[in-house]
């Protein structure tokens, strides 16, 4: 199964968030979380214990990708778009903004992942060396934005002040990256049985 870099990064971050939840306390250890991805609520279905994730870290990425791809191409995405267009025509942009704000407010994580420019850009003849973005002013607990720019990937994490231990979260995401890398290397070193 072919995975893109963005798929792997999404899986690493979701896995890191789950590791973080496991380490915080007994309540978050067994809690489910909801992520808003590109303004569509995506419940990262089927809670997996940390023990299961350690056994199958690459499957976690593949399963996350399958869920996101399935929901991205589902009829509900088109239906929500049609309903939002209708709401815009009937009640105006303020009503649509309130619906979106409320949806984000009932989620744990807002996640946005963009493939950025592959060639260098300039602004008023000044070269742009790097590019990143984040959403501000939202009610969510954690915002994760990922963007690539000329073969460089930038990940931005924004948290509510005092709600998330950002150092521990960073550590858990790095740990998820190490576990997934190790699992991928073990698979690549396994001789093909043909």
Automatic annotation (TrEMBL):
InterPro entries recorded: O-acyltransferase_WSD1-like, O-acyltransferase_WSD1_C
GO BP, one annotated term: triglyceride biosynthetic process
Pfam family, one: WS_DGAT_C
Cellular component aspect of the GO annotation: plasma membrane
GO terms, molecular function: O-acyltransferase activity
Domain O-acyltransferase WSD1 C-terminal: 54-176
Cited PANTHER family: O-ACYLTRANSFERASE (WSD1-LIKE) FAMILY PROTEIN, O-ACYLTRANSFERASE WSD1-LIKE PROTEIN
Protein name, entry field: O-acyltransferase WSD1 C-terminal domain-containing protein
Species whose genome carries this gene: Trifolium subterraneum (Subterranean clover)
């Amino acid at each position: 199964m072919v995975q893109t870099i963005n798929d792997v990064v999404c899986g690493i971050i979701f896995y890191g968030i789950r590791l973080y939840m496991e380490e915080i306390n007994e309540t978050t250890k067994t809690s489910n979380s909801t992520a808003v991805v590109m303004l569509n609520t995506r419940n990262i279905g089927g809670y997996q214990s940390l023990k299961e994730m350690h056994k199958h870290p690459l499957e976690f990425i593949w399963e996350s990708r399958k869920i996101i791809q399935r929901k991205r191409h589902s009829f509900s995405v088109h239906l929500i778009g049609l309903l939002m267009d209708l709401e815009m025509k009937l009640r105006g942009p303020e009503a649509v903004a309130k619906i979106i704000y409320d949806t984000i407010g009932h989620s744990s994580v807002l996640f946005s992942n963009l493939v950025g420019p592959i060639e260098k850009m300039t602004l008023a003849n000044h070269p742009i060396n790097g590019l990143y973005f984040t959403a501000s002013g939202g009610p969510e607990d954690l915002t994760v934005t990922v963007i690539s720019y000329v073969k460089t990937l930038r990940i931005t994490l924004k948290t509510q002040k005092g709600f998330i231990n950002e150092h521990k979260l960073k550590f858990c995401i790095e740990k998820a990256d190490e576990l997934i890398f190790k699992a991928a290397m073990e698979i690549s070193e396994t001789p093909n049985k043909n």
